[in-house]
Amino acid sequence: MRTSHPLSILAVTTALATTGWAVPAAAQDAGVDAVDDSATIIVTGTRRTDRTVADSAVPIDVISSDSLANSGSTETNRLLNQLVPSFNFPQPSLTDGTDSLRPATLRGLAPDQVLVLVNGKRRHLSSLLNLNGSVGRGSSGVDMNTIPPIAIERIEVLRDGASSQYGSDAIAGVINIQLKKSVGGRAQISYGKYITTMEDVKNVASVAPTTGASDNPVITLTDSDRKRRDGGTLTMATNIGLPVGDNGYLNLTAEYKDRSPTNRSGADLRRNYAAAGDSRETTIDRFWHRFGDGESKDMNFFYNAGMDVGGWELYSFGSYGVRDANGAGFYRRALDARNADWDNGGAPIYEDGYLPVITSTIHDIAVAGGLRGEAGGWNLDLSINYGSNRLDYGVEDSVNVSLGGDHSPRKFDAGGMRYGQTAVNFDAQRDLDLGFGDTSLALGAEWRNENYKIVAGEPASYAVGPYFYTEGAGVGSQVFGGFMPSSEVDASRDSFAGYVELDADLSDMFNVQVAGRYEHFSDFGDTVNGKVAARFEPIEGLALRGSVSTGFRAPGMAQQFFSTTSTVNLTGVGLVEVGTFPVGSPIAVALGAEPLKPEKSLNFSGGVVFNMVRGLNITVDYYNIKIKDRITLTENLQGQDIRDALEKAGLAGSSARFFINGIDTRTQGLDVVASYRLPDMGIGKLTLTAGYNLNDTKITDRRTFSGFTADRLFARPESLRLTDGQPSNKLNVGLDWESGPAGLTLRGNRYGSVFIPVGSEGDIDVAKGAAPGDLTLSPKWVVDLEFRFRPVDAVQLAVGANNLLDEYPDRTPYGVVDGYDYGLNNAYLPYSSYSPFGFSGRFVYGRVSVDF
Fold first, then answer.
1. How far is CA 801 from the centre of its chain?
2. What is the rounded CA–CA span in Å between residue 21 and residue 173?
3. Could you give phi then psi for residue 648, rounded to 5 degrees?
4. Per-residue pLDDT reduced to its tens digit, 578-591
5. Exposed, middle or buried, 377 (CB in 10 Å: 0-12/13-18/19+)?
6. Per-residue pLDDT, 17
């Protein structure tokens, strides 16, 4: 990473701001105050221009820039996890590219079932398809961590289905990120690191050498828990707002972030060397795995601009981000066959074993522009929006064993993926006088093009070397085999849509919203969706609201076209391909795959709004989301019947997996959100907030085809990961206090239990917790605290701690426990990646901010 770039840009932009381009700090927009949220004009969930949070017919959370700033987190996803009870952001490890681009969810649904907007325009997806054992498996989401929190004016979270208004993906809701337009600026630098003690993970006291040919060493652990001081994170960011003419604006943001890796591995209790009695067994550092956050260096740049052109606004906004990151794989021990050098008689290639690393270079680009204004009583907006995400994989400290140690590189280009999106939108809105209250009519059209590509890696990253046949060595670069030329794809699709929306106050007490949308996709055809929402306020300050809508999610481009294969040598058969295949590939079709259909949803919600007490706002909303034809990735289908079916079709193969419209689900739950601004008691401004989410997902139906049972297509572990792999409930509470130059923020998040289906006995009908070995992560409180002080008006100093009490998820068992053999892997992987708050421990930080 060329760190001179962010440093120089930060310096230049700060210098411009301090030489007269910006106005004094007093004019800076500090963001939406939490106590005024109910009066905030919203732009999500309706195209009406005067709708506020308090009188919305659907639930919307508004998160201010101040709320985003008062934390040690500098990742947007982590901040939303702290602030929105129905938002979940686990931080898995050892999941290939997902370590560098982690998924997030809303209301327990998939990452691609929530629509993300920036300034009301659709944000492009990432090119990464999550495949390896994480929440959101089989989906692609938006990388919101490319959006610096300092660039955000506010975030509006619509917790309701909105496909009829915005199109595909808006099943769980919509997250609309509004960029700053304000004049003024802020430059800040923060640094923090983890200062933590790993709960129930011990150091090594002594190691007795192995005696037998296959024995593990006898390892004695200490009584004390392991302490870690790692994960140092430096973030430098600046935001500058400049006036353009009388009514224009130019807002610029630059951010540089450098995060060192964390390691929460335990001691590996297995033998490392092949020879019995090898003295090195007693001296090697047995914490040779790396389990935790990967290393990451990010540069992100945003702009948001607008100017007056003859009474119309010409606007544009965009971003460029680059992330150089890496995540470790599993350690290959010295005796591992994946470390054998057959050029030299099978001796270890790496004398003490090796830790292969997957590197990810991600380029993210977006630009939007348009013209909006009034003509003939209509508010018109014509825009074009382009975004792309490019991920290139590399593999380091690795080897292609099949080539032999003397002929294999140690560093590989493994290929990559590309996703691009172009959208053209026309929106029109006007107020109508129908004689019974304010009425808004909106209509519009959209054309969207999506493109998906896979690029092959260098030949050595996937090559079948000479030792593959005779010694059974692994093929391709260890930890991540490169994309083969047969996996390359360049596919596109178009969609055309039209919508209409009517928002009418039928009386002072009663509001109704009706919306409908027609959309045609070039790959699967038409879809029509509608929505009706209403709000009734019989008493001022007490209102009832509800909605019913249909929705859809188009099959993801990656779900249709992703392919990654490897080659194996089957006795009596020869070389065959195994892996993940597109639904249209000959192998998938021979096994019964059909073209993917869109997921369809039916959303119900109903709630109550209470704000009869000055300063107190409470909302309670029930939701029920039924989804038909959810897209799932099959299990790895293998066995003699698979080989026979492929042979009958003239194909060679032994196993395969692909995407299908596999299940129907029902998700229901309850959201409670409250805030209270206490009356002035002479102790400063004091605001209390609370949020609670109760969520439950069930699989209501399963598909079968070609003789495959439901269990074989989507087995128990993946079924329960989808239904129970996220917290069943979550509680957020917060306190914000400001008095003169001092301020304090205290937040607590209680994450409910999470179920981990370790056991695999029985079929899909085995109840949760009924199979031996299943685990449940117990509920945990995570507390964050920050104290702020301004020695002068323009400078703010802050210190704080995320996870102040150093909480960890329950330690996973290893060895034989209660008659079940968990093996030894959990000895060095002590915490589950299902943990909804990660497993890094206490993060202590400091921050300096300068307003100008």
1. 23
2. 39
3. -60, -30
4. 789 999 999 999 99
5. exposed
6. 38
Q: Is 224 exposed, middle or buried (0-12, 13-18, 19+ CB in 10 A)?
A: exposed
Write the CB contacts of 207 (distance below 8 Å, at least 6 apart in sequence).
217, 218, 219, 220, 281, 282, 283, 286
Closest by Cα among 193, 77, 59, 174 to 135: 77
d(CA 526, CA 503): 26
Task: Give the Cβ contact number of residue 742 at 10 Å.
Answer: 12
Question: What are the CA-CA distances from residue 751 to residues 198, 721, 725, 727, 730 (Å)?
Answer: 19, 17, 12, 6, 5
- How are beta strands 843-851 and 616-633 bridged, if at all? unpaired
Other CB atoms within 10 A of residue 789 CB: 14
Residue 529 and residue 645: Cα distance in Å, rounded? 40
Q: Locate all alpha helices (DSSP H) within 63-149, ordered by sequence.
A: 65-69, 76-83
Nearest-angstrom CA–CA distance, 434 and 506? 9
Longest dimension (CA), the chain: 93
Closest CA to 693 of 64, 86, 57: 86
**Distance of alpha carbon 119 from alpha carbon 43, whole angstroms:** 9
How confident is residue 470, by pLDDT bands cut at 50, 70 and 90?
A: low
Block residue for tokens 């050029």: 343
Tell me the two tokens of residue 768.
């949760």
Closest CA to 146 of 296, 7, 321: 321
Pairing relation of β-strands 114-118 and 173-179?
A: parallel
| CA distance linking residue 714 with residue 708, whole number of Å | 10
Q: How many CB atoms lie within 10 A of CB 552?
A: 26
Residue whose C-alpha is closest to residue 721's, from 110, 177, 295: 110
What pLDDT, on the 0 to 100 scale, is given for residue 469? 67
Q: Which domains does the chain have, with CATH numbers?
A: 4-851 (2.40.170.20)
Could you tell me the pTM of the whole model?
Answer: 0.92
- Give me the helices (H) in 386-518, please: 467-471
Among candidate residues 291, 285, 294, 292, the one with its CA nearest the CA of residue 203 = 285
For 672, phi and psi rounded to 5 degrees?
A: -125, 125
Check: CB of residue 111 under 8 Å from CB of residue 90: no
Please provide the DSSP assignment of 713-772 as one string: HS-HHHHHHHHHSS-SEEEEEEEEEEETTEEEEEEEEEE--EEE-----S-TTSPTT-ST
- pLDDT (tens digit, 9 = 90+) per residue, 400-434? 999 999 999 999 999 999 999 999 999 999 999 88
Hey, what are 440's tokens?
Answer: 């808004």
Position 112 pLDDT exceeds 90: yes
Sheet containing strand 60-64, edge to edge, reads: 60-64, 152-158, 173-179, 114-118, 121-122
Residue 137 burial by CB count (10 A; 0-12/13-18/19+): exposed, middle or buried?
buried
Contact 576, 568 (CB under 8 A): yes
| 3-state SS string for 197-262 | EEEEEEEEEEEECCCCCCCCCEEEEEEEEEEEEEEEEEEEEEEEEEEECCCEEEEEEEEEEEECCC
- Tokens standing for residue 146: 């490319």
Q: Supply 394's token pair.
A: 């590399």
Quick one: which of 844, 826, 834 has its CA closest to 264? 826
Mean pLDDT over all residues of the chain? 90
In the numeric block, which tokens belong to residue 612? 């009869």
